[in-house]
Write a structure and sequence with these properties.
single chain; globular; 11 helices; Serine Threonine Protein Phosphatase 5, Tetratricopeptide repeat; 0% strand; mainly alpha; 210 residues; 26S_Proteasome/COP9_Components; 78% helix; 2 domains
Length: 210
């Protein structure tokens, strides 16, 4: 019978201590970035980006959670400062990291950034630009789930801007894809936007049928 190799307790101890030290390091870095928010916004942004871009790429690493915390904290800070363009830029800066994230988590982060941008003043044009850029990226990366949701958001933005034809054309193409996937929740959202368009152009029969 082969001998079973037991882990050396001292080695395990060292690993735990190293992990705890790393966690403390990144927790302190996050606290420093938060403290800078009210003192020096530019330095706070730099501190958050340092955490985000210098975190371990391995999502199994327990410390990777600090990168996600930093992303959300930075996004909130950019909204509070009304830095709409910075939010759009952040969504692009994060793309190299998305390759190592689960697709569902990537979708959540991207949609969150779009939501944050919507909270800034007079940002509709930038939201449209951000959605278009994201759709292009999703297409290249074959991120269908996220693309469908961003396209739906873009259709709603077109409606807001009274670009009814653009919105309807996008929804028509989107519907043909989503029906094949039987994504009921998204289908409902698409139909609701369609109804709002038809009401907006006073096409009441079609709106009621929808």
């Amino acid at each position: 019978m082969a001998d079973v190799q037991m882990a050396d307790p001292m080695d395990v101890d060292v690993e735990v201590q190293a992990s705890d030290a790393s966690a403390k390091y990144f927790e302190d870095k996050l606290d420093q970035a938060r403290d800078l928010e009210t003192k020096d916004s530019a330095q706070a942004i730099k501190a958050y980006k340092d955490i985000i871009l210098n975190m371990p790429q391995d999502q199994d690493d327990p410390q990777a959670k600090f990168r996600e915390k930093a992303i959300y904290a930075l996004g909130d800070h950019l909204v509070n400062k009304g830095l709409a363009q910075e939010i759009s830029t952040l969504s692009k800066d994060l793309r190299p990291l998305f390759a190592d994230l689960p697709k569902a988590k990537t979708a959540k982060l991207v949609r969150h950034l779009i939501d944050l941008l919507a909270k800034t003043s007079n940002s509709t044009a930038l939201q449209i630009e951000m959605c278009k850029d994201c759709i292009k990226w999703c297409t290249g990366e074959k991120r269908t789930f996220l693309r469908h949701r961003v396209e739906t958001r873009l259709a709603a933005l077109y409606l807001h801007e009274m670009k009814y034809q653009d919105s309807l054309e996008l929804l028509t193409r989107l519907l043909s894809e989503v029906k094949k996937l039987d994504d009921k929740l998204l289908l409902v959202e698409i139909h609701l936007i369609e109804c709002r368009i038809h009401y907006a152009v006073q096409n009441l029969p079609k709106a009621k049928a929808g």
